[in-house]
Amino acid sequence: MTTKKMSNCLAPIVLAAALCSAPSLGQSDGVSPALIERTVDSNLSEFFDLLALPNDAVSAEDIRKNAEWLERAFRKRSFTTRQLANDGKPLVLAEYERKVAGAKTILFYMHFDGQPVVPEQWAQKSPWIAALKHRIAGGKWEEIDGKAVGTKLDPEWRIFARSASDDKGPIMMFLSAFDALKAAGMEPGINVKVLLDSEEEKGSINIGKVASEHRSLLHADGLVINDGPMHETGQPTIVFGNRGNTLVRLTVYGPKMNLHSGHYGNYAPNPAQRLASLLASMKDDDGRVTVKGYYDGVRLTDAERKVMG
């Protein structure tokens, strides 16, 4: 099940507000913890509306409904939006331009699709009907009366719903950060772009193609990825750097039946040993990838380039 601790909503909003904020004329006292808590409380119903939308990317219709909802939500915060075509499962690009000379542009990445779900495995009415729960005796979770929505939230409550944390939670945090800035009389100190992926849980198989087609639209001075596991301490974490992966299918051919080692050993190649040798040759003892051309197109610092030889 997907849960989100209410207190964990606050720190990311503080971070987003600090990263984006700059004073505007007639600014108030800034984004205070009390203002952030009020914003979280008031946005809970909107968050529940977002969680109510099924978002498994196997359904293009569901993905389009999510994309349309997100466009409305970002436009409400004065963003301009557009859908980026993707075989019926559009990505969403939202932009907030300050039009200030020299302002940097930061691209925020989040995704709104979710993992497949088996409703019968959920201890609540539906994984698409978000439930507030608190822990009771025996370590079990008990649902709180829905009337609590829109009231003061206990930081020890949890939200149970598909994608409540991965990754619709960060989307709602981001929107709440803008609400808090506006309430504080502040403006972003940067130009903001937000790319909302529609197939992350399916491997983002088309994002490279979409990014290439819209290179100029996605151009930015920096990238912030609002997705990832929580640190084991339970504290919000900023990670400087993010690794991707490369999927490769290797087929190793060998004899179609067992061969007697006394008769065929040494001159009949062992496919398991060949594969092990091949895999071992792809990295050296210091962890550097040895495949020719692997680092082509990768921007390295001088220190990294020196290490890479």
Structure description:
The chain has 309 residues and is of the alpha+beta class. The protein has 2 domains: 3-225, Aminopeptidase; 261-308, no CATH class. Helices cover 31% and strands 16% of the residues. The chain has 9 helices and 11 strands. The strands form 3 sheets. A 5-stranded mixed beta sheet has the order 3-4-10-5-11, with helices on one face. Helix 1 packs across helix 4 (168-183) and helix 2 packs across helix 4. The protein is globular. The protein starts with a strand and ends with a helix. Mean pLDDT is 87; it is low at 5-11.
Strand fraction band? 15-25%
Alpha-beta classification? alpha+beta
Mind telling me the CATH superfamily name of the largest domain? Answer: Zn peptidases
Number of strands: 11
Structure at a glance:
This protein has helices at residues 10-20, 33-51, 60-76, 168-183, 207-213, 215-218, 261-264, 271-280, 302-308, and strands spanning 3-5, 21-23, 80-84, 91-96, 105-111, 131-135, 141-143, 158-160, 186-188, 191-197, 222-225.
